[in-house]
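In response to reviewer comment 3 from the previous cycle, which asked for concrete evidence that the modeling workflow produces usable outputs, we include below a single protein chain processed end to end. The sequence was submitted unchanged, and the resulting structure tokens are shown without manual editing.
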Amino acid sequence: MKLNWEFALLLLLVLEILLFGALNPRMLDVNMLLFSTSDFICIGIVALPLTLVIISGGIDISLGSTIGLCAIALGVMMQAGWPMSIAIVLTLLLGLLCGLLNAALIHYTGISPLVITLGTLYLYGGGALLLSGMAGATGYEGISGFPDSFTAFANLTLLGLPVPLVLFAVITLFFWLLTHRARFGRHLFLLGQNARAARYAALSVNGMPYALYGLVGVASAIAAVVLVSYFGSARSDLGRDLLMPALTAAVLGGANIYGGSGSVLGTALAALLVGYLQQGLQMVGIPNQVSSALSGALLVVVVMGRSLSLHREWVRMTWRRVLSR
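The workflow returned the following structure tokens.
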């Protein structure tokens, strides 16, 4: 069933490209298809670990603010004259700490992950704005003046492919091996399906969230580094519009919002599907606000479809009762 859904996503991706290509022939240009991924590939980078969190039965809606905080922190360190190599490492560490703080709050308070990460969304977002104000990076200008060697990173190619796309492929492979070929993945699915059974099986039920939310934090920091390199400036709002597309990609890719099932490859394909949807709509002249609305509508439809599939017996019984009247 999982492979069938992944094949369906691949087919939808091809059909989407062909449809937009019929409306704008530039969409069928191979170089355009490859290099335009740099505009949206960070959706996939953060959607992959988010998929693992959803499989475990959790959620993290603070990733957009984590990206903004990491981005502005990177800019502040560069502005202070720190070497970029050290600044990048510390940015990744900051992302990890944000993820670990989410996990610790969820663990020690027992409050829903949705509520906790909603709180840290504002906490990290406020921290990003505070740092931005202290650095004098107000408005949409942000902190610029990064070294050319750093800003060139997002525009480099490797084996004829843009480096951000290659990075996304490597991260996808890592999460696929971790989730579908390692013991960690088996424990993850069991935790999402039945936390009590996982506890009886002597699995690290309390320790698993630290790894999962930590991975989301690190991925958010990686996305921040890529975005700052791509745009050439560090801003506190860089991750503002990534949460909805990333969540849509994870759920569309096969992650069950109730936990217990999901697919890393499905999420990767869905991220490309969502990204090319945004790209294609822009190329045919549709405003960004409309593409955001369509992404939200897509998420609602997918969630409704998943909910109906989980309660299909109840739906069948209700339908039969209606017909029998």
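The longest strand covers residues 157-158. We consider this sufficient to address the reviewer's concern, and the full set will be provided in the supplementary archive.
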